[in-house]
Design goal:
There is one protein chain. This protein is mainly alpha-helical and about 270 residues long. Helix content is about 65%, strand content about 0%. The chain has 14 helices and no strands. α7 (about 135-145) runs antiparallel to α8 (about 150-165). The longest helix has 27 residues, at about 10-35. The protein is elongated.
């Protein structure tokens, strides 16, 4: 017998097996399309997290109402004697524009610890947000008395002076803030300190540029000055005659900006 020739029964069995395998493969493929694997369920929260840590997670997720709730639970657990928790709860309220509740929380923090500089600063930000700039100044000054090396406190105080049209004092505080931390104006607010620089008009950017120029930071000075001009600042003579800008008058980007100022962007 020729070994290459297969018995008919063997051939049929082989074909039947191949058909079964093919059918199973097609069925499994169809099932995979119809019933895709479910995504892996998220891991449950760690059971060992403290109430404060849970609140911090809600803050990071911008779930401020939940954060305030958990900070309150943590405060209750601490017999309401933890100033840092009062301060954090105030920030949670402030993020929701609940300024009265925020002010109460910050005030509680200062009563528990009168030397808690961040809480005094944050009280200033609450009054700043409701346009009580004169009152915010006193709280910022109190915070600076307790912690003079905090750049954000000086930045906040400068912005309140700016809104009170005390421009020289504003620039002086901006200069101090930038001398401590050159990037303070662009940093995110920390959990413990609220920062409000909101000038958002051409003059604000002009005075920020002036402050940067005063400490010799030509790059940021030009960046803020360009923004002031783009937003419609109209004071070319004032710029050219300002002694602070003369300090960076040989900087190539400043020379180019003055030669080819941007066209104001109309809102």
């Amino acid at each position: 017998m020729n070994p290459r020739k297969r018995h008919p029964g063997t051939l049929v069995a082989t074909l039947m097996m191949a058909a079964i395998v093919l059918t199973l493969a097609m069925a499994n493929g169809l099932r995979a399309i119809q019933d895709p694997p479910s995504p892996q369920a998220p891991a449950p929260p760690h059971r060992d997290l403290t109430l404060e840590q849970r609140a911090d997670i809600f803050m990071a997720r911008k779930s401020y109402a939940d954060a305030a709730d958990y900070y309150y639970r943590a405060l209750k657990q601490a017999s309401f004697k933890n100033p840092a928790l009062w301060n954090k709860m105030g920030i949670a309220f402030q993020q929701e524009n609940k300024f009265h509740s925020a002010r109460q929380a910050y005030t509680k923090a200062t009563r528990v610890d009168p030397n808690f500089a961040e809480a005094w600063n944050n009280l200033g930000t609450v009054y700043f947000m409701v346009n009580k700039y004169g009152k915010s100044v006193s709280y910022y000054q109190r915070a600076i008395t307790l912690k003079s090396e905090a750049a954000s406190f000086h930045l906040n105080l400068g912005t309140s002076y700016y809104h009170l049209k005390k421009f020289d004092q504003a620039v002086e505080e901006y200069r101090t803030a930038l001398g401590i931390d050159p990037k303070v104006a662009v940093r995110q607010s920390a959990v413990g300190t609220a920062i409000h620089t909101g000038g958002a008009d051409p003059e604000f950017y002009f005075y920020m540029a002036k402050a940067y120029a005063s400490i010799g930071n030509a790059e940021d000075a030009v960046r803020y000055l360009r923004r002031a001009l783009e937003d419609g600042y109209d004071g070319s003579k004032q710029i050219d005659e300002d002694p602070e800008f003369k300090k960076i008058s040989q900087y190539p980007a400043y020379i180019e900006l003055r030669r080819n100022p941007p066209v104001a962007i109309k809102n």
